């Protein structure tokens, strides 16, 4: 009898853990094996068994390094995304900021990873930064060495980004040395995935107005399709990701001729894996 109660307790605990994993997948769109392992205090193999069970029940779909819900989920707010994959975003942002040269005019998208690039640029001089991101404006507002151009329009409160005809009209009058774009998901076949068509239309225009195009996406976003709006990318562009991205996730991009850059881990921080 004792063994039966113990088994039932374990089964109940597993069900509760799987229910919570599903809740996270629905609310944030993606769950990482490593992060879930730490959060629940169990081994990665236990989490993989949970994900396999949820997959067999048709509740989630497996992705690189984790899983996403099959049911529709709301777009995560910028506040929610800010704490995700912090080390990976820092690594990506450090590498991206290192591409910028004095005298350039660069375009920064909205989003938490691109805002981290803005933070890395705070020590720059003789630089012009145009942005659709409210967070980037806040980060660079007091930096004397950077001329800041606000591409205002309609503010999307969930992402703290400006979109719409006013933003697009401003872009039509400017060109840029390089643009750094964020993404809710990115695939080799279809480009950048976002929650709304107004976002993807804007990203396509941003890419067209820039000489060099960089898409900043940590490993969990590779191959991800959480929504149904897509931004097509130019023939030549660079994917910048972190060191936890497996080669199986990078191979489709390389096969299509995309330049893939794996950002080294930031010194002084634990590895992004």
From TrEMBL:
One of its GO terms (molecular function) is DNA binding. InterPro entries: Carb_Metab_HTH_regulators, DeoR-like_C, DeoR_HTH, NagB/RpiA_transferase-like, Tscrpt_reg_HTH_DeoR_CS, WH_DNA-bd_sf. SMART domains: DeoRC, HTH_DEOR. SUPFAM superfamilies: NagB/RpiA/CoA transferase-like, Winged helix' DNA-binding domain. Gene3D superfamilies: 3.40.50.1360. Residues 14-69 form the HTH deoR-type domain. It comes from the Bacteria. Keywords: DNA-binding, Transcription, Transcription regulation. It holds the Pfam family DeoRC. This is DeoR/GlpR family DNA-binding transcription regulator. It comes from Pseudonocardia adelaidensis.
């Amino acid at each position: 009898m004792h063994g039966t109660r113990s088994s039932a307790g374990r089964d109940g605990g597993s069900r509760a853990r799987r229910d919570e994993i599903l809740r996270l997948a629905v609310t944030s769109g993606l769950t990482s094996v490593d992060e879930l392992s730490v959060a629940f205090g169990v081994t990665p193999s236990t989490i993989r068994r949970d994900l396999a069970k949820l997959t067999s029940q048709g509740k989630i779909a497996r992705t690189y390094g984790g899983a996403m819900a099959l049911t529709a989920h709301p777009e995560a707010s910028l506040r929610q995304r800010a704490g995700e994959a912090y080390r990976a975003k820092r690594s990506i942002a450090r590498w991206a900021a290192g591409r910028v040269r004095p005298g350039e005019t660069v375009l920064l998208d909205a989003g938490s990873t691109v805002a981290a690039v803005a933070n890395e640029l705070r020590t720059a001089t003789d630089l012009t930064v145009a942005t659709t991101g409210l967070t980037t404006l806040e980060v660079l507002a007091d930096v004397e060495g950077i001329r800041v151009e606000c591409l205002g329009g309609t503010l999307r409160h969930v992402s703290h980004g400006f979109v719409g005809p006013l933003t697009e009209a401003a872009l039509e009058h400017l060109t840029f040395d390089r643009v750094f774009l964020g993404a809710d998901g990115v695939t080799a076949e279809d480009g950048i995935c976002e929650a709304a068509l107004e976002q993807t239309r804007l990203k396509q225009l941003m890419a067209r107005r820039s000489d060099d195009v960089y898409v900043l996406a940590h490993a969990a976003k590779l191959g991800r399709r959480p929504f149904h709006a897509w931004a097509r990318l130019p023939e030549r562009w660079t994917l910048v990701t972190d060191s936890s991205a497996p080669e199986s996730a990078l191979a489709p991009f390389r096969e299509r001729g995309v330049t893939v850059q794996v950002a080294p881990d930031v010194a002084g921080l634990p590895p992004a894996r």
